Amino acid sequence: MKAFDLNTDSVRELNQYLHDSPSGKLSVTNPAGRHCIACGIDNAVEVSIDGHVGYYCAGMNKTAQITIGGNAGPGVAENIMSGSVRIKGNASQSAGASGRGGTLIIEGDASARCGISMKGVDIVVAGSVGHLSAFMAQKGRLVVCGDAGDFLGDSIYEACIYVRGKVGELGADCIEKEMTAAHVHGLEDLLVATGVAANADDFRRYGSARKLYNFDIDHADDY
Amino acid sequence: MPMTTERKLSLRPSATFPQHVLDEIHRAADQGIYEIRGFGAKRSLPTFDDLVFLGASMSRYALEGYREKCATDVVMGTRHAKKPIELKIPITIAGMSFGALGANAKEAIGRAATAMGTSTTTGDGGMTEEERQSSKTLVYQVLPSRYGLNPDDIRRADALEIVVGQGAKPGGGGMLLGHKVTERVAGMRDLPVDIDQRSACRHPDWTGPDDLAIKIQELREITDWEIPIYIKIGATRVSYDVALAVKSGADVIVVDGMQGGTAATQDVFIEHVGIPTLPAVRMAVEALQELGMHRKVQLIVSGGIRSGADVAKALALGADAVSIGSAAMVALGCNRSVFLEDYEALGTAPGYCHHCHTGRCPVGITTHDAELQERLPPEQGARWLRNYLTTMVLEIQTLARACGKSHVLNLEPEDLAALTIEAAAMAKVPLAGTDWIPGNNK
Ligand code: SF4
Question: Are the Cβ atoms of B31 and A217 closer than 8 angstroms?
Answer without folding.
Answer: yes
